Amino acid sequence: MAENMDNNGCLQRDSAEHEGYAKALRSFNRIWKERDSAQPKLLEAILYKDNFNRAYKRVKANKGAPGIDGMTIEEALPYLKEHQQELIDRIYRGKYTPSPVRRVEIPKPDGGVRKLGIPTVIDRTLQQAITQQLVPIYEPLFADGSYGYRPNRSAKDAIQRVKEYAEQGYTFAVVLDLSKYFDTLSHEILINLLRKNVKDERVVQLIKRYLKSGVMENGVVIDTEEGSPQGGNLSPLLANIYLNEFDQEFLKRGVPCIRYADDIVLLAKSKRASERLLESSTKYLEDKLKLTVNR
């Protein structure tokens, strides 16, 4: 009887040990699976075939002129089919160097010019692929009063919002005019802002290389130490990420703020309040974000 009990006990103990081992193994595998899924995979999502193909189709639909290499949108497709894997490998290894953008000047109605930077079609496609993956990250983070370069929002919507505030008694407006915003935003500040929500450092570094890629003007490449030239697919999103800091700051202060790209309107109920707003908002933009407000 004692021997049987011992045998059964041994069997039960072996079974319990086996079950305990299996349970521990399942827990171990789950922990590592969760840890692996938490690792940055954003670059892989950007370079995923479906995302990249969708980006090319978007660039093709937008048409646009060639960059400094002269390659047209139609010529880019066979190039990508032949060299896409090589391009992707270079990006993964951190060896991809974006081409400088081509400087184009567009006349303004007031007599001035608006400077654009036209990337190559390949770089436009890659920028669009990046944008497609960043938009879902940042859209929930943007202030409700931000209207420029956002899905299903327009300048008319922004104007309507201002009218609604006016009906609530906010009849004094502070209109902030930023000087050369796209060309002067700080790379250091922007990169630090990106790191708050973009956890894949490879993507941050790729964006940094785009910011530092330079501008070709009259056959000469000029280094870009600041700014994100208008004309690239990524620039509008980066511009919104940068000024979202301003939006959120004044939202916390309880100030109605309506922004369309770099056109900012703050609203107040009295002249004195609007004067204080002008002073405090200008100080924030110039001291914290290193921008220049036209006076």
What would your notes on this structure say?
Keywords: Nucleotidyltransferase, RNA-directed DNA polymerase, Transferase. 58% of the residues lie in helices and 12% in strands. α3 (49-62) crosses α5. Mean pLDDT is 89; it is low at 1-13 and 31-39. With 295 residues, it is an alpha+beta fold. The chain has helices at residues 2-38, 42-47, 49-62, 73-92, 121-138, 155-167, 181-184, 187-197, 201-211, 235-252, 271-288; strands at 101-107, 113-118, 172-177, 215-217, 220-222, 257-260, 263-268. The protein has one domain.
Which band does the percent of strand residues land in? 5-15%
Low-confidence stretches: 1-13, 31-39
- Give the H and E element order: HHHHEEHHEHHHEEHEEH
Secondary structure: number of strands:
7
- Strand line-up across the major sheet: 2-1-4-5
Given the C-alpha coordinates, what overall shape results?
elongated
**In this structure, how is the largest beta sheet organized?**
4 strands, mixed
Helical segment count: 11
Q: Into which percent range does the helicity of residues fall? A: 55-70%
**Which structural category fits the helices and strands?**
alpha+beta
Overall domain count? 1
Rg computed from alpha carbons, rounded to a whole number of angstroms:
26 Å
